[in-house]
Each structure stands twice: as structure tokens, then as C-alpha cells.
Specification:
247 residues; alpha+beta; ADP-ribosylation fold; 2 domains; 4-stranded antiparallel β-sheet; 7 strands; 13% strand; globular
Length: 247
């Protein structure tokens, strides 16, 4: 299952995070529990359980919900969940540590360590832009940020989500046609730290960056476009984002 902000369970979790930011923990907890109760598949249950966990009053209950989230994430076991295993196992280990269970704490810390390293995602990968490019062209770092125009980016960014690339194309600067190119990394890449473990656990949007160029190998034409209302919501959301871009 591909992560999508239009998914009703994801929307509830986003609303819950909004309530947290407003200092309304009871409302946030209610929304996360609603998401859990309305979840219909393993991915949705994993996401909802993760957020229910952080509103528990005691360590034992938090541990129960974290382990529930982990079990559903293990069932899904795709690139959208694997990136969260490091954080999940670490959080579970910390709970066991707080409960005085040294053996289980050690076991889970070791499991967390096994998920360190570069992403294993094999793609296909996409890059969204309004630039008119051709197969064989290289996309290189050094462009200005779409979100902070005075910032020159040290990396080139891409994603394994055609929806995410389409959104990036829609938000990109310029008056050209929105384009989603199929790309291949020419060097190593890492999880985009601007989204990984920020709002959602791990890197469910499968967003990456590289110091090496991306080679254009094709163009996607069947990606889902955002409605004008959805784009306006994204622009407002980005305008309210606080903090510096990790460059």
C-alpha cells in the first residue's frame, strides 16, 4: 500500500497531530483512537497504533501499543514500513529498559541496530518538476529550494511515490507543464532527513536524496493530479512549516 495523505486514516492522524500542536492532548488521543477503530488494513492499523502509543499514561500501555504497531508493520513489511523499524525497536527497547527488563531491552536495541544503514529501496523512482527534459539528461544538485528560494540545495531529491513526485511538480517553481520523470540514481542515496521520522514514523513517503546525479530514463504520464483545493492546502501547510531545511 502506498502512503497517501488523502487516505482517511492518515487524515485523522494528521488532525491528531494538529491537535497536539495546539496543546489539545485529549482531542489528539480521541482522533488517534478513532483512526485505530476505523482502520481497515494492516498499514492503517500500524500507523494508528503508533500514534495511540504516545498518548498512553504508563510505560506498560505504551509498550503494548508500540508492539502492536510493530506487529502490523512487520505484516506489511515493505519499504514504507521497513524505514520505521529502527525507531520502533528503539522505542520498544526504551520501554523495556524503563520497566527494568534488561534482557528484552538489550534484544530490541540489537534489533534496532540491524536496521541502520542506507535504504534498500529498489524503486522505480520519480522526480517531479516543471522543467522540460529528455531521456538521458542528468538532474544534479545545486538548484534552489522550492520552499526557501534563497537556499541552494546540496542534494538532488526523488521519491518512489509517483503521487509524491506529482505533488513536487505541482509545487515547483516555473510556468511549464508539470512533469514526472522516471529516474535512476547514479550513486548512493539516503532517506530525506526533512521528512524521515518527522511527522510519521520512518520514511513512509519513500523520499530520498543524493549527492550524485539522477539519470532520466523515462517519463510517467498516469500519475494522479491534485485538485486545486488539495494544492492550496499543501501550500498553506508548507507556509506554516517551522524550522530550517536540513541541507
Amino acid at each position: 500500500m502506498e502512503f497517501s495523505p488523502s487516505n482517511p486514516i492518515i487524515k485523522l492522524c494528521i488532525q491528531g497531530m494538529g491537535a497536539e500542536e495546539k496543546g489539545e492532548p485529549d482531542e489528539a488521543s480521541r482522533l488517534f483512537l478513532q483512526a485505530w477503530n476505523e482502520a481497515t488494513n494492516d498499514f492503517e492499523k500500524y500507523i494508528a497504533a503508533y500514534y495511540v502509543a504516545r498518548h498512553q499514561d504508563n510505560v506498560a500501555d505504551k509498550l503494548k501499543w508500540l508492539e502492536t504497531a510493530l506487529q502490523f508493520a512487520l505484516r506489511v513489511n515493505n519499504e514504507a514500513t521497513v524505514s520505521a523499524f529502527l525507531g520502533l525497536y528503539s522505542s520498544i527497547a526504551k520501554c523495556y529498559e524503563d520497566l527494568g527488563d534488561v534482557d528484552n531491552a538489550k534484544r530490541n536495541f540489537e534489533l534496532a541496530k540491524s536496521f541502520r544503514g542506507d535504504p534498500s529501496d529498489k524503486g522505480p523512482f520519480y522526480h517531479g518538476t516543471k522543467a522540460d527534459l529528455s531521456v538521458g539528461d542528468l538532474l544534479t544538485p545545486g538548484g534552489s529550494s522550492n520552499y526557501q528560494p534563497d537556499l541552494i540545495m546540496n542534494h538532488i531529491y526523488f521519491t518512489a511515490s509517483a503521487y509524491g513526485a506529482g505533488l513536487a511538480a505541482a509545487l515547483a517553481k516555473g510556468d511549464g507543464r508539470e512533469r514526472v520523470y522516471i529516474v535512476e540514481p547514479t550513486g548512493s542515496f539516503e532517506n530525506d532527513p526533512n521528512v524521515t521520522d518527522r511527522k510519521f514514523p520512518g520514511n513512509p513517503t519513500r523520499s530520498y536524496r543524493s549527492l550524485a546525479p539522477l539519470k532520466i530514463v523515462g517519463e510517467a504520464t498516469d500519475w494522479a493530479r491534485q485538485t486545486p483545493e488539495e494544492l492550496q492546502e499543501w501550500r498553506e501547510r508548507l507556509a506554516n512549516v517551522k524550522g530550517e531545511i536540513i541541507n
